[in-house]
Amino acid sequence: MQNELELLRIFRAAAESSSFREAAVRLGLSPQGVTRAIKQLEAHYGELLFHRNTRQVRITAFGETLLARSRPILEQFEDLWRPPGTTKDAVLSGLVRVTAPRSLGARAVLPAMKHVAAHHPGIVLDLRLSDRISDAVDEGIDVGLRVGFMRDSRFVARQAGRMQLHTVASPQLLKRTGTPRDIDELARMPVTAALDINTGRPWPWYFKGGRQWVPPSPAVIADDADMEMGAVLAGIAFAQLADYMARPYIASGKLVKVLEDQAPPAWGLYVYRPQRGPVPGRVRAVFDALSNAVSELAGA
């Protein structure tokens, strides 16, 4: 049983790392030892746990399922094995710096904060909510959330969910303007523009086929996603909003989706951390809490 638990512990470390080499550093093993353990588990289950190439390893769907099943078992065993007087909460203490877009603050970061506070009261969270793309390495950020794509080799990233963009309007506005049949008709109607504070220019709207459209003469320009959504709910303009923002208002009938046949593919919602070698337990705990919160938000 001890050997089986150790194999699963190595697998968990590999799944939470960007490479088998990083997992080996965390565990004090050789990269070859991690590789042998993963191969032994794959032989046992008769399933691949990771897709491998010369540049990276990527966990498989079966691996994700095994990780979700094994993580609570390993945590329970580690709690049981911990000597008296060295509680998990005492070990997981210290400062963790977190960055996230403002639109995910109350929706994902706050639920994660609640979980961390309940299970690890020794952890202090330093939250930096901003739509500005920060340099997580230079600014000492431990964990971050990002919408879109993560291809930066400096970070370990986990796709925790997916986000769909919806073009929406209030029923009152649709009654006044009619429903646009295509983007050309939409261009003649009042729309919002979300300001990219990184460039000072409006973000484009995204549609299927990779088409991007910048509103030529917006009725509202905002650098805050919730303010933009407020303008849509007030019947002032059309907007393109993330589904985690618009979903409850669409369900209640306060917002209506338009141009659904032009919707773009879903984007990823990523939790990431800089690669700095071994990961402190407090950082891993916040990383997991944010991943779970984003996953629940995306699946709501």
Can you tell me about this structure?
The chain is of the alpha+beta class and 300 residues long. Among the domains are: 81 residues, Winged helix-like DNA-binding domain superfamily/Winged helix DNA-binding domain (Arc Repressor Mutant, subunit A, Orthogonal Bundle); 98 residues, D-Maltodextrin-Binding Protein, domain 2 (3-Layer(aba) Sandwich). It is built from eleven helices and 15 strands. Strand 3, helix 6 and strand 4 form a beta-alpha-beta unit. It is elongated, with a radius of gyration of 22 Å. The two termini are 38 Å apart. The mean pLDDT is 88. Belongs to the LysR transcriptional regulatory family. It comes from Halomonas binhaiensis. This is LysR family transcriptional regulator.
Main attributes of the structure:
D-Maltodextrin-Binding Protein, domain 2; LysR-type_TF_proteobact-type; DNA-binding; single chain; LysR family transcriptional regulator; 5-stranded mixed sheet; transcription regulation; Arc Repressor Mutant, subunit A
Offer a concise description of the structure.
This protein has 300 residues and is an alpha+beta fold. Helices cover 42% and strands 23% of the residues.
Layout of helices and strands:
Elements: H1 2-15, H2 20-27, H3 31-45, E1 50-52, E2 57-59, H4 61-81, H5 88-91, E3 94-100, H6 105-119, E4 123-129, E5 143-148, E6 155-163, E7 165-169, H7 171-177, H8 183-186, E8 192-196, E9 201-202, E10 205-206, E11 212-213, E12 220-222, H9 225-233, E13 239-242, H10 243-252, E14 256-258, E15 267-274, H11 281-299
Helix pairs in contact: 1-2, 1-3, 1-4, 2-3, 6-11
